[in-house]
Amino acid sequence: SAVEAGLYTASDQIVQLTPGNVESVLLNSTAATVVEFYASWCGHCIAFSPVYKSLARDLKEWKPAVDLAAVDCAAEENRKVCISYSIRGYPTLKFFHAYSKAGSTGKPFRDFPRDVRGLRHKIIDQLETHSETWPPACPPLEPTSEAELDSFFETNNVQHLALIFEEAKSYVGRELTLDLLQFENIAVRRVLKTEEGLVTKLGVTEFPSCYLYYPGGNFTRLKVKVEARMFYSYALQRLQGVVRSGKPPPVTTDGLTNSTEDPWRPFNRSRVYMADLESTLHYSLRMEVAAHTIIKGEALIALTKYIAVLAEYFPGRPVVMNLLKSVNSWLQNHIGGEISYDAFKEILDNSAQSPDTALPEGVRWVGCQGSQPHFRRYPCGVWTLFHVLTVQATNAEDSDPQEVLYAMRKYVQSFFGCRLCAEHFENMARESMTDVDTLSAAVFWLWSSHNRVNNRLAGALSEDPNFPKIQWPSPEMCPACHMVKDNGDHQWNKDQALSFLLSYFSSSSILKDYLE
Ligand code: FAD
Question: Buried-most residue among 114, 165, 168, 234 (CB within 10 A)?
Fold first, then answer.
């Protein structure tokens, strides 16, 4: 379809405009919209598309106030749309205010910057030019004053007010106001350095810095490792009482049950458990693969690759490794284009009764337990399993850097029951998996792809309120993984992140609790 021929997919969090939806997206919307008019054949558009995708991830929390859209003007069916907006060159970016009226053709961003930060600032500038009644979906962006604060808690029903003290030219305060837009019990306002009364009253000496302000004039400084957007944002989202809109608050683990007959298993949130890995193998090989009575073609290739990678790299107990090796040699020696699941299952269940050879039956989730039976569990196990495998593969120096990722890609494509997940994963794989050229690049690819999925799913219905989706590892788990560029933007310290991943998923760190 035309959408697939374009530069963006459904996984990019960018609304794809068509003649059918263009009016409902751009006109009378509660949110402002930035639209990229592009032609899929245009080199500058191709070069710009990764920046626009990163921008969409960066502004994910701003969606109620401002959303990103794109339209491929090279697609025949979109020709009229692009003509009606007078588009002559690509890429063109246009800003549509909230509640734009019919006939509005948007405000072009002339000579727009080609980096996320520059574009983000342009968007804030445009949001601030809204001239009619301020759109209710957008929080106030103007600086606050001492007078406003006096009556703040009378007019705003929130528990926390975060004040960002900053210079007039800084965007951090406004960025955070938008970053916290979808969270309840908190409001964020910027205070300019020139607001002397407040600066003196709170004793502010550093700009930017963040203070939490409470009724009665009490205040306390927000402690962060670095005075920067990402550190503030992470800390504010985790304040007592702050919850994502529409999500129930997290419950204490005392009240949690895995299911009625399954008691909650206390665990360390920053460790990997063998029980989760074995449960994942059980579920994948006895439930997902079982959905195919006859396994042939792509599915047979996928299963063979998956088992080969498991036999090679799974850091399992000897009994489990014996089983995986026997299944692997059975598959490798198999002749013919198809196998039946029943035949596979005989080997899997060790019908020959070889001693010390078994894959335990059933699931015992530990690190992948959810606060409700429909949260976490198997998909959590799938991610964990493949992170472990990419890390194990780094010990085998001469192996193919893409081997584990390829096995995962094929497994997900043929067997992973969540079909939409498989589609999103395939989009990411097609985009960049083939660039992986070293074993550490494979570890990185899976880590950053998983973070892209976390970004997309933050706030989704499938998110367990007790385990919010974050850009992982958090600044608490790995402070050294997080860096701030000279311009204040967040950056991963790749060397530190790699050492963290290698140690976190290493076989010696895997805990053996709760195994039978
Ligand atoms: P998970 O995201 O499952 O992560 C498991 C554990 O891995 C975390 O608890 C954490 O310890 C660790 N971790 C987190 N991030 C990283 C990282 N970047 N690198 C290394 N370790 C990390 N759900 C949907 O609703 N829509 C989808 O499109 C979708 N696509 C998916 C695609 C694949 C291939 C898979 C395996 C799952 C997909 N899911 C999707 C499910 C979703 O990603 C989660 O697995 C599920 O919601 C359970 O979340 P969780 O809280 O257990 O954390």
Answer: 165
